[in-house]
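Hi everyone, sorry if this is the wrong subforum. Our group has a chain we'd like a structural model of before ordering constructs, and none of us has done structure prediction before. Sequence below.
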Amino acid sequence: MAISLTPAAADRIRTFIAARGAGLGLKLGVRKNGCSGFAYVVDYADQTSPQDVVFEDRGVKVFVDPESLPMVDGTTVDFVKQGLSESFRFVNPNVKGECGCGESFTV
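Answer:
Right subforum, don't worry. Here is the predicted structure as tokens:
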């Protein structure tokens, strides 16, 4: 099981945590939502649960709750800037389909 980060994603997480002055890493999960079933939930981890599975890549920790792990296992997290937009993007080998707007997915 693994979650990996691109250099751009790792840099963004480190930069944001430094600017905030606090944080342990990135919290990654999924929730039921959208037209395809699931949506990613991304936040900065200020604390962790004992049940969280912790991955470390490029010097950044990624915390995943056990319920989300089967749906995000093997995912690569990227950070993309396009014009004035910037966001995390996910390359998830478990995804079987995505909605047209790209906000939700099925596994």
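For your construct planning: The chain is about 15% helix and 45% strand. The helical segments are 7-20, 69-72.
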